[in-house]
Amino acid sequence: MAAEVTGHKQKAAWLERVLPPVEQVQPGLWSIPVEIPIAPLRYVLVYVLELDDGIAIIDSGWNDTKSYETLVNGLAVGGYQLSDIKDVLITHVHPDHFGLARRVREETGARITLHRAEAATLMTHADDAKNWTAEGFSAMLSDGVPEDEAREFSPTGREFRSLVSDEPIDILIEDGHQLDLPGWNLEGIWTPGHTPGHMCFLDAERKVMFTGDHVLPRITPNISVHSNNPPDSLAKYIDSLTKVGDISLKVDNCEGLPGHEYRFAGIKERTVELVEHHEERLEEVRELVKSRPGITAYDLAAELTWSRSWESFGPQQRRSALGEAVAHVELLHQRGVVTMEGYGIRRWRIAEA
């Protein structure tokens, strides 16, 4: 592994499958593990930034009672209360990161900050949830998923909408935005790929980069193509990895503070490792398409190498695997390596030289 562990207590807890401790990373900066109902992740790391007049948090946790209580109790360890929160900075709108933001705002009046492209994915109109569900189901059928299986693991817009707030965002930011947080020199770095508007945050003076789900020390973040993530999501992700790695080199001893797992050093080395992983994956997809002309994305997902067997995957795991297979074959298509054919069901072949 290219990443060097700096959060040793977090790493030990990860291996023991327990919740890590609340930790003071440096003066005015705390890490709070907030429980989430997702195995095997188990928790999201919420970061507390001390301000002159209160605190800001980066990400919030799942919108349920256990996450809320874990967050409140974690704040108390650092000597804070929920009412101290003035700002909620969101890396991306997945429920484990964005879920509690609305409740925190309702109870504290805190401002929610989000990248403009990420805010555009929220279901703010009456028909958005219905359209999102229909688009997702149709895409699965076109990728070769049998209809009964597509109905089983096709997510619904109503389900997703119940987990995240669709209310207007207070502060919309772009790449390079300087956050107005007294005592901090925090810059937003746009890192599309995992989601269209994913953000990392860098404070060069404090030598920390909050990497969200963009760069994790051990896990490879899921990069999928679906209704809210465009066909070039993997291309954007790879470009964003290079961008973040290069930025980290400008900061001596820059520490990565991720959304899951544990703190780490060697951001550049880890981004290179992740790019290499995806290039290897692309080659595996190319070989499968070459050996099986006319293969669907669903069959690609079933035949790709995973850490566990395809047969052992539940609906959520198969949906994620399918999304990754689509992302990789789409990038091969964009590079001119494969071509798509078929009406109704999309099938893939090696492009003619």
UniProtKB/TrEMBL annotation:
- Any Pfam family matching the protein: Lactamase_B
Give start and end of each Metallo-beta-lactamase domain.
43-260
Record-level Gene Ontology MF annotations: hydrolase activity
Say yes or no: keyword Hydrolase present.
Answer: yes
Q: Give UniProt keywords alphabetically.
A: Hydrolase
Asked if the Swiss-Prot or TrEMBL record annotates the protein with the keyword Hydrolase, the reply is yes
Task: Give the protein's recorded name.
Answer: Glyoxylase-like metal-dependent hydrolase (Beta-lactamase superfamily II)
